[in-house]
Amino acid sequence: MAATSARHQASDAQNLYDNRAPVYDDSWHPRFARHIVKFAQLQPGEHVLDLACGTGLVSYPASKAVGPEGSVTGIDISSGMLAQAEAKKSSHSHSNVEFYQHSITDLDSMPELKGKTFDAITCASALVLLEHPAEALKQWASYLKPGGRLITDATHPRSQLALITFERVGRALGKPVPFYRIDFQKPDDLRSIMEGAGLQVDVKLISQLDIDGKEDLESYLEDFNNPRIERLYSVDDADEKFDRIIDTWSMADLAVPDMRQQARKLFKEEWAKLADADGKVKAVDGVFVGIGRKAQ
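Now predict its structure.
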């Protein structure tokens, strides 16, 4: 397999989310964020570090859970997402939330965090954007108090199939894409890197897409061996999937004229590998959520 060329992860993340910021909340993310907060089991008076806080979807429910005696520190690289988060402060009942623009892979350079530890750390929908997630998790865990919790997630390998197929194409051609999902193929992959950060870990599979009339976490928990199927595709859908994404900025290195046709060919080959014996490509609705606890 060819080696991919270097990317700047923080710039990638900012590019990905600055343009999405105004519409980010118009999705399944608010409900998913509330589930992340529930996994954290926050108590009044606790202090929370919300990494990749985005528009504050985890930060604000967390601030309500910890109350005025607690606090939430939100960190994100995207100025667009943070602008949305800051705009919500005026309608929020507590003044215990602060936001900072910074890379979540370099917390040690933040003077605002110097000497601080937290009861809980959350990172929702962002771990798979990091090229070196195991290193990041070790750094994050150093900011946990003994007995503290760290909650993060990784997309199921059968979810968002076009994107992970493009990632495989990029790796094969030595061209970068701005996400790193291939190493998360099963629940134990997430468990392993969290345990490597010194945490005791439980992993759940939960649905991302909304279920009509349901908000409670229990309704969204899934069976690892029988996950919810979001949609069935066919092998023939490969060209449509390729064309829909190839001209986005994140695929710029694959879209250049001398690379495009080769990328299409490989995309179709990788897409076909996803098909079952009947030629159906099953897209799963699911995300692995890791709940880690630091030893007392």
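The two ends are 43 Å apart (CA to CA).
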